[in-house]
Amino acid sequence: SRDYSAPVNFISAGLKKSAAEDMSEEDSDEDEKPVKQEEIPKEFVPKKLKTGGNFKPSQKGFVGGTKSFMDFGSWERHTKGIGQKLLQKMGYVPGRGLGKNAQGIINPIEAKQRKGKGAVGAYGSERTSQSLQDFPVVDSEEEAEEEFQKELSQWRKDPNGGKKKPKYSYKTVEELKAKGRINKQLSAPQKELSQVKVIDMTGREQKVYYSYSQISHKHNIPDDSPQQPLGKDSKPQGFALPELEHNLQLLIDITEQEIIQSDRQLQYERDMVVNLTHEIQKMSEVLSHEETAISNLSKVLDMVEECERRMQPSCENPLTLDECAKIFETLQDKYYEEYRMSDRVDLAVAIVYPLMKDYFKNWDPLKDCTYGTEIIAKWKSLLENDQLLSHGGQDLSTDAFHRLMWEIWMPYVRNIVAQWQPRNCGSMVDFLDSWVHIVPVWILDNILDQLIFPKLQKEVENWNPLTDTVPIHSWIHPWLPLMQARLEPLYSPIRNKLANALQKWHPSDSSAKLILQPWKDVFTPGSWEAFMVKNIVPKLGMCLNELIINPHQQHMDAFYWVIDWEGMISVSSLVGLLEKHFFPKWLQVLCSWLSNSPNYEEITKWYLGWKSMFSDQVLAHPSIKDKFNEALDIMNRAVSSSVGGYMQPGARENIAYLTHTERRKDFQYEAMQERREAENMAQRGIGMAASSVPMNFKDLIQTKAEEHNIVFMPVIGKRHEGKQLYTFGRIVIYIDRGVVFVQGEKTWVPTSLQSLIDMAK
User: Fold this and answer.
1) Which spans does this entry mark as compositional bias, Basic and acidic residues (predicted)?
2) Is the CB of residue 513 less than 8 Å from the CB of residue 539?
3) Which residues pair with 749 in a beta bridge?
4) Which of 287-301, 410-424, 518-532, 683-697 has the least mean pLDDT?
5) Is the Cα torsion angle 119, 124, 127, 133 positive or negative in sign?
6) How many CA atoms, within 13 angstroms, populate the side-chain half-sphere of residue 571?
7) Which domain holds residue 252?
8) Which of 49, 80, 160, 710 is most deeply buried (CB count within 10 A of its CB)?
9) How far is the C-alpha of 190 from the C-alpha of 555, rounded, in Å?
């Protein structure tokens, strides 16, 4: 018969205690002050469960939940467990949470039912009032108490019965401006995201959106669950107005966008003001520069008109070339930019060319080669195009000076070269030497290739070395500094003409040497050696064949004719002549003389006399050394073989001393040459260091032994006349005053270093 449509008032599930129990609990725990419970009607008090104990159900609905904290673990008194005691020993206080800072909870986290069947978070936050975030970590008991009282006050009913004031969130204009700037920077990625296709499957029906922003603006669809009937004391629920909310949000967004657009427009206008300010400054500078340029151009125009006026025939004060050069110098110094921009070619053609023609009208280059060099050098610095010069060009249309030299100066040179005789080369060479640093390179090349060389080539063809009294080198060699390799085509016909002239030549005629000697350094070494071997060496060989060696009456003319060519022909060619045509006869005469009981003093003088006829360079050649050493060996054998016959007193000693002296000279000269060569190599950094240069003859022998892989070492305990004996390969030697002696069959024989190396091998 009860009315079930009346509203249900839920109450706490806790039990009411007596006053005595409440007093005892307050006395036992003075630190905590539980909240007093209101009186509950008896009919709403739950009945005790028949559990056989004093079990108390959880007081979930009790205000603050204090009783449930206080009764935590009270069932343990009826068991044998010691968990409560252990917790109290570790600092646990009944009525507070677990943990160091009492941040723990006792009751489990409640679950919250979702309104519809959507995904997680589709209907707002699902966090309960008893989530972990509602129990922050505190640092002390006082803070824990304050936090507890704060949470407790949220459950109390406002005594005034008023509703809580709604909280509003505001956005300032500065925040909107900042947001607009950020969105402007991120406009590109947002544009890409705005074109993403999104399929929403969180509702009952599948919906397709074409940007993420459409999801955020979709309306909240109210639940389809039936509404409960309103009771007598119930309050009506609020109605959802998604269209109104959407329109309000749209007005807010439009207003925000207008504010952002206004801010951007304002910033654009400010930037435009700054940009225009800079443009005004720049244009002011350009205007000032243009005014200065106009002023300078007006002055330049006045100066040019003044020059044209003074060039008129009727002018009383005509313009000279020096005055015109000064005017151009003024233009170049004071108005350099305008001078560079102007057309110098046309200006020079109109003003300078007539003055230049008048200046050179009576000029003879061969008589006065330096005439006009100073004034032309000045005009070169004024008119020459530096850029064209750096590229090596010869464009007459862009360089006024090159055109000036080609059209004004060059005709005078052509006329004078046409009348010039090549054998009178001095005046023409001096003329070109005076102008070589002024004339452009390509004009000088044209003069040498097109004007001078054809004249020289024609004159060489007409030259005859047998009849012409003027040697050809006197009018060809002065052109070497200017023409250099350009004269190479002339050398071959010159050699052919000289070879033809030497066909009937005899070495007694010294004029051939005078004609050929200037060409030695002009011809290449190969062509010169080939010319000598073909035309001179055979003639010298014939002359040596005609030489008669007579110790009693010697005629030396033929020998002098041959030796006189030593500097002209190579050393190897001269040595070949001597080996073939001189030394066989010379050694034969020596053997014949020694076989007829000779006077050894005369033989010694004869030997030394012939040796003194050769230069040190020829004597240093190994073949010449061998020939003279062979003569010494012949004399030593002659002295040693005449044991029973008559022997001139002191002859043996004289010959031995001569041998020793001559070979010592050879060794000293060889050591000096090698030391000098080693020093030169050490200075150039090519050979050994200066410290490794041999300092004495023993070091020289050791160096030669190392070069030829020959063992050179002292013989222990063996000496000869107090001199240390050494093994040099397979032979035994000793060294005395820079001379090496080799052990022979009966005596020690001095020998050369090269012979020693040959014997050791």
Assistant:
1) 33-43
2) no
3) 742
4) 683-697
5) positive
6) 11
7) 246-297
8) 710
9) 119
